Automatic annotation (TrEMBL):
Top-level taxon in the UniProt lineage: Eukaryota
Upper taxonomic lineage: Eukaryota, Viridiplantae, Streptophyta, Embryophyta, Tracheophyta
One cellular-component annotation, GO: actin cytoskeleton
Protein name: ADF-H domain-containing protein
CDD domains named in the record: ADF_cofilin_like
GO biological process terms on file: actin filament depolymerization
Domain (ADF-H): residue spans on this chain: 5-138
UniProt xrefs under Pfam families: Cofilin_ADF
Family stated for the protein in its record: Belongs to the actin-binding proteins ADF family.
Listed InterPro entries: ADF-H (IPR002108), ADF-H/Gelsolin-like_dom_sf (IPR029006), ADF/Cofilin (IPR017904)
Length: 138
C-alpha cells in the first residue's frame, strides 16, 4: 500500500511503452498519470507522426502528469538527432494533494525509465514551449 511519503507504485506497462518509444520508435510521446493516487499508469501515447503541439494538448490544465517526448531535430551541421525529454507537468492550478503525490513519486518513476536525456519540470505551458524544447535539445 503506497502512501504520500513513499509515492505511488508503477504499473509494468509504463516501462514497456517507454522501451517502445526509445528502442522501437513506435511512439512520439507518452503521458502517464496516477490512478487513484496509488499507481502510475500509461495515460496516452502519441503516434510517431504526432507533433509537439499534439503532445502539449494532452497535458491537463488542472492536473499533473509525467510525460516523455521523443524530439527529433537537425543540428546546424545538418545532422539529424533525437533527444528523449522527460517532463514533470505540475500546473499551479492542480490540487495540492495531487501535486504532492506526483512530486513524491517523480524521482522513483523517472529512475524506471532508462534512457531519458533531458529532464524538465513545468507549471505552465510557457515553460515547455517548442522554443524552450528546441533550445534545450541542442
Amino acid at each position: 500500500q503506497a502512501n504520500a511519503s513513499s509515492g505511488a507504485g508503477i504499473h509494468d506497462d509504463c516501462k514497456l511503452r517507454f522501451v517502445e518509444l526509445k528502442s522501437k520508435r513506435m511512439h512520439r510521446f507518452i503521458t502517464y498519470r496516477l490512478e487513484n493516487q496509488k499507481e502510475v499508469i500509461v495515460d496516452q501515447t502519441g503516434e510517431r507522426e504526432a507533433t509537439y503541439e499534439d503532445f502539449t494538448k494532452t497535458l491537463p490544465e488542472n492536473d499533473c502528469r509525467f510525460a516523455v517526448f521523443d524530439f527529433d531535430f537537425t543540428t546546424p551541421e545538418d545532422v539529424p538527432k533525437s533527444r528523449i525529454f522527460y517532463i514533470f507537468w505540475s500546473p499551479d492550478t492542480a490540487k495540492v494533494r495531487s501535486k504532492m503525490t506526483y512530486a513524491s513519486t517523480n524521482e522513483k518513476f523517472k529512475r524506471t525509465l532508462d534512457g531519458i536525456q533531458i529532464e524538465m519540470q513545468a507549471t505552465d505551458p510557457s515553460e515547455i514551449s517548442l522554443d524552450v524544447i528546441k533550445e534545450r535539445a541542442h
